[in-house]
Amino acid sequence: QWVVGFSGVLCAMMVVDTYCNRKTMRVLGVLDVPWMAFPFVDIVINKIIVPRSSFVAHASGTSLASTRVEQ
Length: 71
Prior knowledge:
Elements: H1 7-21, E1 25-27, E2 31-33, H2 38-49, H3 55-69
Antiparallel strand pairs: 1-2
Helix pairs in contact: 1-3, 2-3
């Protein structure tokens, strides 16, 4: 059974937020990441911390928003 959650939408909103701010983001208080890479780094870290999370849903929301936000 497949379940579609709200996480893809939240990842898309994170892309829009980082696009509007356009500043270096700090991941886990240790690593400085350029604003364009932050959403992708975040979904990888999310997958490491929560292994059962849906990488496909997070990556889909992030990728779709990344293609739309630059237009």
